[in-house]
Amino acid sequence: MTKTALVVSAHSADFVWRAGGAIALHAAKGFRVTVICLSFGERGESAKLWRLPGMTLDRVKSERQAEAAAAAKHLNVHDIQFWDLGDYPMELTREHLFRMVDVYRTIRPSFVMTHSRQDPYNFDHPMTNEFAQHARVIAQAHGHNPEQKVIGAPQVYLYEPHQTERSSWNPNVLMSIDSVWPQKRAAIECMAGQEHLWDYYTRVAMNRGNQTARNSEQTCTYGEAYEAVFPHVVESLA
User: What Pfam families has UniProt attached to this entry (predicted)?
Assistant: First the structure.
């Protein structure tokens, strides 16, 4: 059976900065990775585009979608979906929640990646975290659409917020992304509307690579860090 993974991204660039390495790594291992972009980040994360003469909301959305779609190709994303639910503020309804439940039950992910629980600089991010985790729990409920098969208990990994020290984010998983760093950097460079973040997230990857090397016996230049929400069930501690 083909393994799958689910990434729930508040805005169209978030999955690139924060989880691009993990996506590319698992795609290389044969995982089918589905990315859900709840919004394009058209209002709050597209300042460069809004400075262009004659810019409109629809043009911003179109540009952001094209950037994210190009980035997804570099990362070998199996399926990227743009739900266009708005940003600043994002408005999530019961209908959207049940739509996400159906995604869980359809793709049956081995693991999920999404935002941190807190982020005082961007309220769309913790809202997306709650949305993704709430849908996961409902997808496990036998009484919700009982004609559908419930899912198991996929681990949820919270990717790195922009201001870690203000977001109560506690990374407990480090991962080398050296083998796919060229793919992630290429994906990063697709996000032309936020060019000011290209080198910032390269430095983040280098810092996490240093930490990955210090906590293992491997040589590592680039890495990503995550906070696992649930305990890992293991058969051995070695």
Answer: PIG-L (PF02585)
209, 183, 163, 134 alpha-carbon torsion, rounded to 10°:
-110
Residue whose structure tokens are 């909301």: 57
Cα separation, 183 vs 204, in Å, equals: 16
Question: Tokens 């629809």 map to which residue?
Answer: 58
Asked if 212 contacts 218 with a C-beta cutoff of 8 angstroms, the reply is: yes
> Using alpha carbons only, what angle is made at residue 107 by residues 17 and 135, rounded to the nearest 5 degrees?
75
pTM attached to this predicted model: 0.96
Residue 237 lies in a domain: no
Would you state the torsion angle of the CA atoms of residues 83, 86, 89, 91, taken in this order, to the nearest 10 degrees?
Answer: -50
The predicted-structure confidence for 57-80, as pLDDT tens digits, reads as follows 999 999 999 999 999 999 999 999
For the chain, how many structural domains are there in total? 1
- Is the Cβ–Cβ distance between 157 and 113 less than 8 Å? yes
Q: Is residue 235 part of a domain?
A: no
Give the whole-angstrom CA distance, residue 74 versus residue 97. 29
Q: What is the DSSP letter of 144?
A: S
